[in-house]
Amino acid sequence: MKLYYSPGACSMAPHIVAMEAGQKLDMIKVDIPNKKTAGGDDYWKVNFKGYVPTLQLDNGEMLTEVGVICQYLSDQKPESGLVPRAGTMERYRLMEWLNFIATEMHKQIGALFNPKYTPEMREVQMGVIGRRLKPLEEKLGDKRPYLMGDKFTAADAYAFTILNWSKGLKLDLSPWPNIKAYYERVGQRAKVVETMKAEGIA
What we know:
- By secondary structure, the protein is of the alpha+beta class.
- It contains eight helices and five strands, in the order βαββββααααααα.
- It has two domains: 2-80 and 192-198, Glutaredoxin (3-Layer(aba) Sandwich); 89-189, Glutathione S-transferase Yfyf (Class Pi), Chain A, domain 2.
- The chain has helices at residues 12-21, 66-76, 89-110, 119-140, 154-163, 165-169, 177-187, 190-198; strands spanning 2-5, 26-31, 36-37, 54-56, 62-64.
- Strands 3-2-1-4-5 form a five-stranded mixed beta sheet.
């Protein structure tokens, strides 16, 4: 399988999942602004949406969207425990987290990358981010090391990837001490460190 990625982008989440599951992926770097792969191919022909990640299956099919790819990769290695068994309430709880991360964290925090944001716009967006992070801060206050409890899952790979943007965005996580501790805890996992080194951002 091939994973089309951009270093440190949301595509790092499925990269972490693959590392944690012991899966070997061929990594294809993508220049997102110019829509070109490292080999010079037109990325629009790979993913009509124009963004990463894209997972190319061995049969040539293309799969997109972070949460979907993370679940697909995890399901290929059920012994990894990165996702609960399909059809169980635990699996739907995982999907709750993946959807929350995609819509309330990824999109809200990612908006700060917009170079046209004025200080006033950033202030407004920070208020939105604060409200979105509040339930995560409270849930992590339940003495749970990971989103689903004691076990690291695909949802943690995605959440960490988004929280890792805080460094480049100069987003101080100290107002959310449980989130800050969680981010630091996940960031110390051996496979997470290995993934970041592989992407050249560690």
